[in-house]
């Protein structure tokens, strides 16, 4: 079962027309709402549990009353209407909040109520079926949001005033410090930059795989988001796919439609943790490669000048097969590279060791 996103015929013509559909979004306000979701349902967000425990000490009962009161806004995703329907893109939270104030004041209040009612009805009845609850939303229970809907119909200004006061208190007590201490802004901008470069260099389909989101993949001519229910989304020639990386949403993957396409909010934090494991494995491989005196000698010779297997064997008085085995270990660790020059294969050192241990070769020349 999945959400199937069907792109228009024009979008599918070339890789270039596919790339034109994609926009990455940097949104501190999105992270604020997603972090409120984590505070509301922290049992399902183990990767952020330490942050939740630290935050709870800074927040009082009045805050938690408001957290539950406004839960429909961020409980199961955030309606695009609370991002100004993405009509303009800004990069700082103060501007985002001011735009939201203007947007909520300018649109028909019934539109907001209708959207929230639809979300409440759809998600209670079908968005989270029994299978979905057991697979994706374990230990999750919808909060009662009737008070919010009733108050919006009777006294919308008071509701919005309370919402922005709630956001201001949360920012002062928790979020702004979290944003700064965890360097979330840098984390998100790095993710967007990396994926944008990958999109440019390797194309749309490869970029989707490079996001490292297990439940998001390209299948033939469609974008598939694995979910415990079926849904089809049809995009026209003008529609866009907005990709929003998030620090807070794991283990969820949110898909929401808006006037000009579809929004996919995906987890970028788990990838960072996988990267840390990958870096540890890389270091283990490097240290293993450097643990043998013969390989250290090879590194010393290759740092001075490129060489063939035969030349190294002669200098070190060893068989070519033995040298080849050592070179392969060094090459697997990323410490050595080879390049064919006519009929010869020349080996040389890479820049990896210099980037990790800047004085390594000075030390090596002194000791060996």
TrEMBL record:
SMART domains: HTH_ARSR. SUPFAM superfamilies: Winged helix' DNA-binding domain (SSF46785). Keywords: DNA-binding, Transcription, Transcription regulation. The keyword DNA-binding applies. It comes from the Bacteria. Pfam families: DUF5937, HTH_5. InterPro entries: ArsR-like_HTH (IPR011991), DUF5937 (IPR045981), HTH_ArsR_DNA-bd_dom (IPR001845), HTH_MetalResp_TranReg (IPR051081), WH-like_DNA-bd_sf (IPR036388), WH_DNA-bd_sf (IPR036390). The keyword Transcription regulation applies. Residues 275-368 form the HTH arsR-type domain. GO terms for molecular function: DNA binding; DNA-binding transcription factor activity. PROSITE patterns: HTH_ARSR_2. This is Transcriptional regulator, ArsR family.
């Amino acid at each position: 079962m999945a959400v199937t996103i069907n792109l228009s015929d024009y979008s599918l013509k070339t890789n270039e027309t596919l790339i034109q559909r994609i926009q990455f979004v940097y949104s501190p306000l999105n992270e604020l709402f997603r972090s409120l979701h984590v505070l509301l349902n922290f049992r399902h967000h183990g990767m952020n549990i330490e942050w939740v425990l630290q935050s709870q000490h800074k927040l009082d009962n009045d805050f938690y009353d408001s957290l539950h009161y406004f839960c429909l806004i961020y409980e199961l995703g955030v309606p695009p209407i609370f991002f100004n329907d993405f009509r303009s893109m800004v990069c700082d939270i103060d501007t985002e909040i001011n735009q939201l104030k203007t947007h909520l004041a300018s649109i028909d209040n019934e539109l907001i109520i209708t959207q929230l009612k639809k979300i409440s009805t759809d998600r209670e009845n079908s968005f989270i079926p029994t299978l979905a609850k057991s697979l994706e939303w374990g230990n999750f229970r919808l909060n009662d949001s009737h008070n919010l809907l009733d108050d919006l119909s009777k006294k919308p200004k008071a509701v919005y005033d309370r919402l922005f006061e709630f956001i201001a208190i949360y920012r002062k007590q928790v979020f702004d410090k979290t944003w700064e201490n965890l360097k979330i802004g840098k984390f998100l901008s790095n993710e967007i930059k990396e994926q944008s470069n990958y999109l440019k260099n390797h194309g749309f389909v490869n970029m989707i795989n490079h996001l490292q989101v297990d439940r998001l993949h390209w299948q033939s001519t469609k974008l598939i988001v694995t979910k415990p229910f079926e849904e089809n989304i049809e995009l026209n020639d003008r529609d866009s796919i907005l990709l929003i990386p998030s620090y807070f949403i794991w283990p969820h993957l949110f898909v929401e439609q808006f006037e000009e396409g579809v929004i996919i909010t995906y987890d970028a934090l788990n990838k960072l943790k996988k990267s840390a494991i990958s870096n540890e494995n890389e270091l283990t491989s490097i240290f293993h490669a450097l643990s043998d005196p013969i390989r250290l000698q090879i590194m010393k010779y290759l740092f001075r000048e490129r060489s063939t297997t035969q030349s190294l064997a002669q200098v070190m008085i060893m068989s070519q097969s033995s040298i080849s085995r050592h070179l392969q270990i060094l090459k697997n660790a990323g410490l050595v590279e080879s390049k064919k020059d006519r009929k010869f294969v020349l080996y040389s050192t890479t820049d990896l060791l210099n980037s990790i241990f800047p004085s390594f070769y000075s030390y090596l020349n002194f000791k060996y």
